[in-house]
Design goal:
The protein is an alpha/beta fold. The protein has one domain: 3-Layer(aba) Sandwich (Rossmann fold), CATH 3.40.50. The chain is 31% helix and 26% strand. A hairpin with a 2-residue loop joins strand 4 and strand 5. The longest helix is centred in the C-terminal third of the chain and has 16 residues. The model has no long low-confidence stretch (mean pLDDT 96). The chain binds adenosine-5'-diphosphate. The site of adenosine-5'-diphosphate (ADP) has 12 residues, from helix 1. Adenosine-5'-diphosphate binds next to helix 1. Part of the ABC transporter FtsEX involved in cellular division.
């Protein structure tokens, strides 16, 4: 499902972000990626959807060989991955429904099929009554629900989330986590970088800790492990 073999990343300015990462994540797993700021978590996550390219090493995601992937095949890879960000990244001039529809790149879907899919995923996140609202008319938690719905639109095998609760209060964060749990229960792999110690310590799943670009801990049902 996701395989990294001795992956290194040095940015063009000479910063070494990852220094030899090897990891295997199976279909259906729920994985937290933890570690101090600057440890390499975002880089680790961005490599999976080829937002950044490795300097060295091998990466396979959903059957795609990331280093060999031709640029024109990147949309195919990204259709197999849903991505959720800390700052939601919704298009401000589009409604919730339009934001989700925009992500439905599946060639050959009719307008009616698109509408049905949009309604389906927005209902899954509990926003069936707010489909025509603009992001500015929604709370932070609701905006993140739209982003989760958008990530589900193409029925991806994996959802990758970079600090998805970073801008949300604790109650709202738990609402998003319940959604991820439900999505994971249906078989979708979830990889989530987080600083949310309460969530990691309460909803115990696999924990991969990265420090200074290497994996220092990889435990099933692990703990957050930092005092911050
Ligand atoms: P984290 O997500 O754990 O905070 P990052 O992956 O964002 O860590 O960053 C790892 C290291 O790489 C840090 O030293 C950071 O400053 C550096 N870095 C991240 N992105 C870039 C970039 N585009 N160019 C140069 N250095 C970067």
């Amino acid at each position: 499902m996701i395989e990294m073999q001795d992956v290194w990343k040095e940015y063009p300015n000479g910063t070494s972000a990852l220094n030899g990462i090897s990891v295997h994540i199976q279909k259906g797993e729920f994985v937290y990626v933890v570690g101090p700021s600057g440890a390499g978590k975002s880089t680790f996550i961005k490599l999976m959807y080829r937002e950044v390219r490795p300097t060295k090493g091998h990466i396979f995601v959903n059957g795609f060989n990331i280093e060999r992937l031709k640029d024109r095949k990147i949309p195919l890879l990204r259709r197999s991955i849903g991505v959720v960000f800390q700052d939601f990244k919704l298009l401000p001039k589009l409604t919730a429904a339009e934001n989700v529809a925009f992500a439905l790149e599946v060639i050959g879907l009719s307008q009616r099929q698109i509408r049905r899919r949009v309604e389906d995923v927005l209902t899954q996140v509990g926003l069936e009554d707010k489909m025509d609202m603009l992001p500015s008319q929604l709370s932070g938690g609701e905006q993140q629900r739209v982003a989760v719905a958008r990530s589900l639109a193409n029925n991806p095998a994996v959802i990758i989330a970079d600090e998805p609760t970073g801008n949300l209060d604790p109650d709202t964060s738990w609402g998003i986590m319940r959604l991820f749990q439900r999505i994971n229960d249906r078989g979708t792999t979830i990889v989530m970088a987080t600083h949310n110690r309460d969530i990691v310590n309460s909803l115990r799943r696999r924990v991969i800790a990265i420090e200074q670009g290497i994996i220092v801990r990889d435990e099933q049902k692990g703990l957050y492990g930092y005092d911050e």
